[in-house]
């Protein structure tokens, strides 16, 4: 049985991610504007520090291209920086016309290649793309009317990836990354900027798409039809992040706020019912270590790792 522990992360960790290292072990990534650290959640040991002096970051994730070692991609104020996940060494800097990239997502394409997608905040307001194996830029995807602040990939069984992006216009656009065509009309319903999106596969084979905005409202959608699913959830006072997941086959949402509402809440993804009492922290990520599901959350004291309650 895993015992709760707090990793003494220096400064506030803004974003948490997880990945599997070259040895197959689970790693927890925690980072703020100046550095990203990789931890072994089973032992609590710090494994790698990624700090190459990048000019501020808002997001990062690990890409796993086939036949290549995993690499860390960091979204910065001047493009994407790439790092070796073992040594922390900076491999390459792609300023991509000096565009500020504020969000990242990755997908395995139908032809077997892996693509990294980035939210291009400055003009021409497009989704930036890179080949994750070669780290070379690909043609931009889509065209938006305003700054893009978030991008996400929805994996649809039997169809392939769907790329979603949203910005200051509050609408969510859907794009086919193979043809480059926009799919359907934008998803409209949020009354402020959406800054977090995700999806979860449902037991019946469907996929649920979820979005959270700066006023703490979470909305659920059918990613193909664009139709709203259920009523909006007023999850937090502000800045709602959302992590969709399956807990023993039951679709759930972990949401968190920022600022005055630094707590994690858990909801039934289909009914919108609140399932249990709030837990401290924000930016939750769920890890599976030695067959046990754990939840990691960020907070002023560091990164807290504890067993995930199976509500």
UniProtKB/TrEMBL annotation:
SUPFAM superfamilies hit by this protein: Quinoprotein alcohol dehydrogenase-like
Membrane spanning stretches: none
Keywords: Repeat, WD repeat
Entry keyword annotation includes Repeat: yes
Name of the featured protein: WD40 repeat protein
Organism: Catellatospora citrea
Lineage, top ranks: Bacteria, Bacillati, Actinomycetota, Actinomycetes, Micromonosporales
